Protein 1
Amino acid sequence: MGGTIEIPIWLFVVLSIGLVISVYRLAIDPLIRRTWRRWSVRAFEEVNPNLQLKLSPLTMMRRRSLADRVASDPVLLKSVEPIAAERGLTVSDLKAEIERIAYEIVPAFNPFFYFRLGYWMARHALRSYYRVRIGFVDEKSLESLSSDQSVVFVSNHRSNVDYMLVTYLTSQRTMLSFGAGEWSQVFPIEQMIRSAGGYFVRRDSGDPLYRRVLERYVQVASEASVPHAIFPEGKLSVDGRLSPAKFGILTYLSRQFVPGVSPDLVFVPIACNYDRVPEDINVIEHDTFQFRAMGRRYVIRSGVVFALRTIWEMVAWRRSYGFACATFGCPNSFTAWLRQRRLEWTEMDSGARYSALSEFGNGIMDEIRDLIPVTPVPVLCHVLDAADDSHFEEDQLLEAFRQRVDRALALGATVVLPRNDARLALLHAVNQLCARRMLHDEGKRAYAINEEKKRLISYYANTVDHLIRAEKG
């Protein structure tokens, strides 16, 4: 028993690795999972009573259980029968693929991460970069939202910061489920997004089976009154203007909808705008194909740079990106909209439904266009973009700046003015543009446009052009 056994170093290394893996799988991993689950349950119990839109029991399901529920849903299995027949298979033959797709799609809801860790991260990241503002058309109208409804927050898509901004500003009311692009399926971004209620969408997938599973998850979550956040543009705007909307998720939400039986679908428009969009240079210089060709290394590298910069911004508390603002519109009941137009949803064919959904969805997008907040930098960029000259005195800029602010206020837009002072807002915007070399400070309160940055200036000007449009000159 006290003898010595000699083994090769390579065997010792292999055995050591096996031991570490076994200890992790059998002891550490289960302990982490139990602790994480306990924290999640505690957060659910503490937060839920104070939320306007109560958390659905669906948000407490484990990811595997939720995926199994979606994959075994009778409505889904019925809908994939034509796909199975087309492939010369039975639905049972497709079961493994359906389960794999369902697990790929569904989020890993975690109230502890969402309301504790995620909220802290979003709050500090946003407030380190931006001075965050919020506007309402009618705040009291949002108080009519209830847990008996299926609430959908519909937002424009200016930046990938939109996800963080919308979830942060709605976290006092509820927990959202939202679709995210494939770009974010890298460690650890994927895990954080899933824990925050995110599900991943293959934007251009032509696989009908994938689409059926995605559709059924959205419907299951909606029927359980899990609030959604959707971004109908589907991609970031390359010119700053609101892009044409795609209503795929809206179609999924409404396909199984039965007025008077299903929870009422209520859509709340949200419009976001920023003094500075982190991705602005990349967005205007690269088309969609080039972005995808960059691959995951680019995403990881960008994520690391963003994280390091966030830490620096938090330490320095610089808020160097200026203002970020979101404006909430009034809720739109889909049932009330159908009733107003005397449409019998359950009796309409697919063509009639598509026409109705397009009208309804475009109406929501028009509301969002009118709600877009007017922050100082886009206003100044609009002044510069609309002028024939490239050299300006400060007084010239101030006069044109005030004219545009007055136009926006006359339309009822949310206008961000520090201390309600147009001159202070102008100086803030000038400092932002000079720091980015979009504007040159020539001294004696005179400025000149950097011609190399004209496209970037137009990008920001376009975000508010429809609200403060002026004649050239």
Protein 2
Amino acid sequence: MAKITAKTSVLISLLLISLVGCNSLPKDKDPEVMYDLASRLKHLATAVDGLVKFGGGDKLSKDELLLAAVKNEPSKLQFLEGYTTKVNIEGNNTAILICRNETAVVEDAGCTAASDVQHWQASQPAACSFTLTLAQICQ
């Protein structure tokens, strides 16, 4: 029977730690998770934008606006759990920003067809504040 030495045990432990570390991305850096989040946010941002432009959404609180955008089905907002969600209304244009720990993750204007800003891909973390100028991109 082979005897495992302390040196072998340490090497095996280091190998296992490195394998686990290589295969586990933080949730906010996992592309599959982030692209799904951005896609869901795009649909929500479009609905919010429509409510503000055509449905009196500008008179609602942020929470009421988000709930109205999903037709009062709170389960459709579960993807936002664990994130800070901000809504920006400029005139009749809107944007939604999702952050975690005061760091911007994804930002989307409701007036555009594509997902707008993938902050999670930036080399340096961005502060949890809006970067889109709605008057320019929503012409």
Protein 3
Amino acid sequence: MYYIKNITQNKFDHSNVYLSFNGGKDSVVAFHLYRIASHEFSTDKKGCELQAVYFKDPSANEFSEITSFIHAITSKYGVNLRVVEDKWERGVKSFENSSFILGSRSMDEGCADLKPLEAGNAGDFEFYRINPILNWTYGDIWDFLLYFQLEYCPLYDQGYTSIGTVDDTLPNPYLKSGDTYLPAYKLTQWEHERCSRVKQ
């Protein structure tokens, strides 16, 4: 929480800092960390507002539960949500001189070498990624959400542990219990988190 506050306050104009929010469990943790940190901002900078952006790939078959959750949770907490109907790589170009708080973890594909603050680019367009939960484990994510009784997408209670699109995501077979599936937080073998994903 304080890391997010300090790094955004000292390096960036808060009006150009966005939470990249996709409704997944990791993103929800980043959402609440930034939401808490924003209260600290409001005592220092009058009128501080939390901003989120949802990059919605129009070609992807998204879960309706994810889309509904994104709108419900941002509305509940009064977050200014901007929906960009494009993939991240193209959509980010509409945010000049901006920085994005992400829910990336080092165990995620392509994230092993990420640093807490990363300069990124999309062609000639440059931006910053802020990664506050890089070193969190799957267990850490669920400990945080459950301890503070925070809402998350209901798909996780149906056995989904890593959510992509309808076409590449299934309940995790390691959570199968008879004819149903246990909730995602019941997974004890964290290395099987992505067994919810179907290889295309």
Protein 4
Amino acid sequence: MVGQEVRLAGWAAKIRDMGGVVFIDLRDRYGIVQVVCDDGEPLETGKGVKLESVIGLTGRVRPRPEGMVNRDRATGAVEVVVSRLEILNAAAPLPFQVDQADKA
């Protein structure tokens, strides 16, 4: 899959805005993959994605940088660099952090 262009859609399970790059963990029925918005329109759109929003994207699969492989995930050796990002359905603000529901 490395080097191939892919089209994906799913829920924004985790979002990390690092200023010049936005990382989104995209969740669908098959699992989670990290997508990277690091330039132009995808970066600007990525900054507007809210947790659990439904997004669609086109991007290219690349290997994760040395030392950044997530061995806990089937897709942990790769990430998708986004060339086109669309918010298909923006989620309303959540009443509590989804990944910390036991603390709500």
